[in-house]
Amino acid sequence: MDETIIKIENAALKLKKFMIKPANLEIPKGYIVGVQGENGAGKTTLLHMMLGMYDKMKGKIYIDGLDVVKNKTKVKELVGIVSQDRIFYLSQDANGNEKIYSPFYKNWDSEEYHRMLAHLELSPRRRLCSFSTGEMIKYQFAFAAAYRPKVLLMDEPTANLDPVFRDDFLKLLQEFVAEYEMTILLATHLDEDLSRVADYVIDIKNGEYSMREILE
Ligand SMILES: Nc1ncnc2c1ncn2[C@@H]1O[C@H](COP(=O)(O)OP(=O)(O)OP(=O)(O)O)[C@@H](O)[C@H]1O
């Protein structure tokens, strides 16, 4: 039987006019899980719930046994996020960001970070503010490779990637899962990406979410 990495117990949230209704899910460790739904369905909100961002959330979400709302700081080490948000020091290059952030991660692997930057053709000497949206996604991926969170939440990562790199990127996701036993949640509109790499899919519709296995 697979080990559960994310356990959702009746987690629900009300945001003004929008609501995520309670549901129970157990996400097994070491798989790629798609998060699928139309624009505004609540994909980003569900990922943010997993980061413990909403104190008013009802129910519980546990990642690796930790209640995410009560353990926000510890959760940051367990859970990485790749999104369109620019959360790094943009006036600094990748070397500068490594100096600032690496002390916060006890698993930080500088060699892996630089190997992945080179693999993704990102110079460690370029300031992050000069990165395109796609390059910024690649950068966040290199950052995640350096500290290998147990869970990586990806919010529409492929939307701004060119088709050739998108292909490589999906392969990299599969390598991450295989090499690091990472669990990846991939929110996307692109059915094609999910049919290529996802083992499970969480569907969100009308505030309700449920998970199904993708059978080959
Ligand atoms: N802080 C907030 N306060 C009120 N409503 C919010 C807040 N954040 C998000 N919402 C609403 O929650 C709903 C879900 O938004 P969310 O961004 O999670 O959807 P999504 O599935 O990720 O959409 P997209 O595919 O367009 O990125 C939307 O109707 C949005 O307007």
UniProtKB/TrEMBL annotation:
Recite the UniProt keywords alphabetically: ATP-binding, Nucleotide-binding
Q: Provide the ABC transporter domain boundaries.
A: 3-214
Q: Which InterPro entries match?
A: AAA+_ATPase, ABC_transporter-like_ATP-bd, P-loop_NTPase
Among CDD domains, the record links this protein to:
ABC_DR_subfamily_A (cd03230)
Gene Ontology molecular-function annotations: ATP binding; ATP hydrolysis activity
* Superkingdom to which the source organism belongs: Bacteria
Family matches, as SMART domains: AAA
Name by which UniProt lists this protein: ABC transporter ATP-binding protein
Please name the source species: Agathobacter rectalis
